[in-house]
Amino acid sequence: MTLCKSAIGPLLLAALLILSAPAYGALRSTDCADLPKGAVKLSFEEFSLPNNEHMGMAGLGVSHNFTENLSLGVGSWMAVRGERGGFITLGISGDLHYPISETLGVESGLFVGAGGGRGGYTLSGGGLMLHTHAGLTCATGSVGRVALGVSAVDFPKGGTISSVQPYLSFTMPFTSLLESGWSQQSPDDTRRWRVAPNVHSLAVVVRGLRVSQGVLTDTGGAQGNFTLLGIEWRNYLDERWYAKLETEGAAGGSSTGYMQILAGGGLRLPLAEKLSASADLSVGGGGGGGVATGGGLLFDGSIGVQYFLTSNLFADVSGAWLTASKGSFEATSLAFKLGYQLGGKSSNHHDGAGSAPADVRIRVVNQTYLQASDLWRSHHADQRVDNLGVQIDYFLERDWYATGQGLAAYSGDAGAYMTGLIGAGCRKKIDNHIFLNGEALGGAAGGGGLAMGSGLVWQGNIGVGYEINPSLSALATAGRLQAVNGDFKANVIGLSLNYLFKYHPEQ
Hints:
Blueprint: H1 8-20, E1 27-29, E2 37-49, E3 53-65, E4 70-81, E5 88-99, E6 104-116, H2 120-124, E7 128-139, E8 145-154, E9 162-175, E10 178-180, E11 194-195, E12 200-211, E13 226-236, E14 241-253, E15 259-270, E16 275-287, E17 297-308, E18 313-324, E19 330-342, E20 358-371, E21 385-395, E22 400-411, E23 418-429, E24 434-446, E25 456-467, E26 472-483, E27 489-503
Antiparallel strand pairs: 1-11, 2-3, 2-9, 3-4, 4-5, 5-6, 6-7, 7-8, 8-9, 10-27, 12-13, 12-19, 13-14, 14-15, 15-16, 16-17, 17-18, 18-19, 20-21, 20-27, 21-22, 22-23, 23-24, 24-25, 25-26, 26-27
């Protein structure tokens, strides 16, 4: 069974980056030490597979510092070397770091995730991934720190991957504009941080891939054209240059299960008052759905035009060339994007008023799929599928929110399954602690033998929650997940632990 992935699990990384807003300019008031901190972590190591095979894995994680030494976050591991392009996992992480001098320190951590691919459940079993590490760190000034150490990885739910290997990582800290708890809408709130404006944007992407003539699939058949659905995040370093993270999954065509995660940078040049042109280059990992990406390393070059429909809302059209480093896959593409840009406004609020913080809820989610159709799976149809993932809710007002979730199977012999959905929801308190919750989502899904058709799916959930304190709550849900043009139908039971932040979008 080939890998099947959808995009929006790692899209949550992009959402966290947007909410974190690295401060490239000078602080307007308060010392930097008074601001909450987060970090982006990049890692590389090689997993040992059966039959003396090795798989180079790149890790990308985003975390928030809850104490001076403890950080918690979300992350993804993706294959970029070997013959397993498209092997990708998503999960949650916890890290400890203790300095032992101004330069040196020690670190350790745990990643609990799910996923798989290019070998299906024979490699990753049910999909559960446990990863631990410990190493020595060396600070590189204010830029970040480099770490070298040893890690161990295991897929305990029937998987065949279990190895110990060295790792190399780089952790880059940033200023975070997140606080705990529900926002207080009082105009007298004087605890307002002054950070130089930072422009960033998030766009929904529909990308049609036209595969080059003669490209074959992993099994030797003709590779057909297919459509990707995903999200692109940009963070502008100045008025023209930007960094970007883009992640997409197959939602149309015959390559259900393909996904890619690309990171890079580019240049945006104004053409008129609301019109601009852009060009960028990206590198990343991807594969699955029978697409011949070799070890998984991808390169992408893009040019496009962007038009602002309002002061914040924009539409974008771009063309790109995408190619695999070692596999035969290459394609041109045409992408349509609809996005929203934040930041870049005046932060000269001398009276301390500023804009009110927004509420952001991050959920660690467990969802169980229960059979609702005889043909819902191509194998192990009598087993339920348990999924682990993360969901981010951005509250547009106290009750209504926009949401995105990424989940991957960890049990039920569906180790290559992943789904990514976006949508909207409502949260309504009915007393001091109890609240009701409802949401509707759509996106891409596939893998693990689940009959997702082209990969396009919808899901609806209703639930009841309990607010333990203003920051922490638990939520139980029931819902339905269904493929738009496939045989998959499942009733869904969910349970999540939720943490509520205040986000300061304009400082």
